[in-house]
Amino acid sequence: MTTATAVLTEVAKSYGSTRALEPTSLTLGTGVVGLLGPNGAGKSTLLRLLATSMPPSSGTIAVAGHAVTGTMAERTAARRVIGYLPQEVGFPRGMTTFAFVDYIAVLKEWTDRGSRHREVDRVLDLVGLGDRRTKRIRTLSGGQRRRLALSQAFLGDPRLIVLDEPTTGLDPEQRASLRTILSSRAGSGTVVVATHQTEDVAALCDRVIVLVDGRVLFDGPVGEFIATAEGSVWVGPSATDGHRASWRTGTGSIRSVGGRPGPGQAPTPATVEDAYLLMLGDRALTAQGAVA
Amino acid sequence: MAGPPAAPAGLPDADAVVLTASPALRLPWILAVFGALVFTVAAAIVDARRGELLYLVVAPLLPALGVAAAYDSTDPIRDVVDTTPFSKFRITMLRTAVVAAASIPAALLLGLAIPDIGPMAFAWLLPALALTLVSLALLTWLTARVTAAVVGAGWVALVTVLAGPGARDLAWQPPMQLVYALVALAAATVLLVRLGNPRMQGGSA
Q1: How many angstroms separate the CA of residue B12 from the nearest CA in chain A?
Q2: Per-residue pLDDT tens for A249-274?
Q3: What pLDDT was estimated at residue A194?
Q4: How confident is the prediction for chain A on average, in pLDDT?
Q5: Per-residue pLDDT tens for A57-70?
Q6: Chain A residues within 8 A of B73 when measuring between CB atoms
Q7: ipTM of this complex > 0.85?
Q8: Is the separation of the CB atoms in B53 and B167 below 8 Å?
Q9: Is B142 helix (H, G, I), strand (E, B) or coil?
Q10: B62 or A19: whose pLDDT is higher?
Q11: Average pLDDT over residues B124-136
Q12: What is the model's pLDDT at position B201?
């Protein structure tokens, strides 16, 4: 029997009169969960709630059996098993990379200096910044800063890792490296990743949750998600009638998602991106800026 | 230029890292030293009464603005810090201790720069405590810059209103000192309630 890492029960969040997350219930077990949705869908809100960065307006959240919405002691206990990467981290740029992670390590209760420094070195090596440990943050590139932000989320191998758009600013090699790191965590913990990169979901996730307007539109295995688009994706010399999206591929043929196929158009295996485009319809193509 | 102090001997290593999280706490030190220098120059070029008034305005504000500055410099990683199990109350007190270590000696030195100020050189301590605690309480709602602006403007306005017949009365007479003590107590209560409030962003521990 698998113990759930996190359980959300009828969790909702409003900012003033704006409802960012409708009452939502989720159970997160081990594995990597991809969170997809247009801008303003409520992805970051859901992640911040999971990470205990803010309280829900209603409902309850439990992480590793500890009620985040309960007593202070329970919330603190939950925080001991959480690693969190916010969407944006504004660094104290004069700090060195080591000092920054060391500071966060202290806040994560690594009180023994020797073991803490070894752990800081470990996570910096993990994200490929071991040779930048003495560099000031202001001298790092955007991708390096993103990896530095990521590194603190891995301190202590937390049971629940919550990552808000972790691959933003990373080059393909770094993204592949991150996938390796995250997939290695999948067997023993839970990783929740909000992303706009559907290929990351396809490559990494066991489960995908699609959020739209603060509501869960889909929640299930990635294979099932892709299956929702099977038979709806076509390649041919022209776009299908009534397609949701279409584009010219590198081979010169036109790939169409949705619509009615015409002469010369053949079905082709669907991808996560196809399923996402179909499921969200026009919302996927004209993402609305709203409360993130 | 002054930087954050080396961690005092005997301080737990973890607290020392929080205290010396350079440059997160450098700004309050710069503020305190720069404020002291500016004040010293100002006190030297104005008459004694205005120097006194200036002292009453500036000295209590140094710790309060220092606390706000300490928060402003670490606000960028607040989202991360809020989700850690480290006691937010402890962080608050450690930051305040660093600021106090810089600003209290600076404010006492300011007192020495004013001729014949006598025991009034210590009259700012209770208002400083009150303003610092009010700042800490406001920081649980407002950003550091807004807090600094509200506390700074509020204090200057109070001094301006009350300082008419005699600035000494404002800070020196027992009734006003009692008011400062009550304000400090109220702000401390609000702070403790807010830090223990699970509905506050980041909660507390």
Answers
A1: 8
A2: 888 899 999 888 888 889 999 999 99
A3: 95
A4: 89
A5: 999 999 999 999 88
A6: 92
A7: no
A8: yes
A9: coil
A10: A19
A11: 84
A12: 42
Query: Does residue B1 have a pLDDT over 50?
Result: no
| Token pair for A181 | 């790191």
The C-alpha of B20 sits at a distance from chain A's nearest C-alpha, in angstroms, of 9
- Measured between beta carbons, the chain A residues lying within 8 angstroms of B84 are 79, 104, 107-109
**Dist CA A16 CA B147 (whole Å):** 22
| Largest Cα span, chain A | 70
Distance from CA of A171 to the nearest CA of B (A): 24
Query: Which chain B residue lies closest to A56 (C-alpha atoms)?
Result: B199
A77: nearest CA in chain B? B85
> In this complex, which of B73, B74, B86 lies closest to A106 when CB atoms are compared?
B86
Give the residue, A201 or B37, on which the prediction is more confident.
A201
User: Which residues have C-beta within 8 Å of that of residue A259, sequence separation ≥ 6?
Assistant: A234, A239, A240, A241, A242, A243, A244, A246
What is the Cα Rg of chain B in Å? 17
CA distance B174 to A126: 61
Q: Tell me the chain A residues in contact with residue B203 when contact means C-beta distances shorter than 8 Å.
A: 52, 55, 72, 75
Nearest Cα of chain B lies from the Cα of A50 at a distance, in angstroms, of: 10
Strands A215-221 and A190-194: unpaired
Tokens 């440990």, residue? Answer: A133
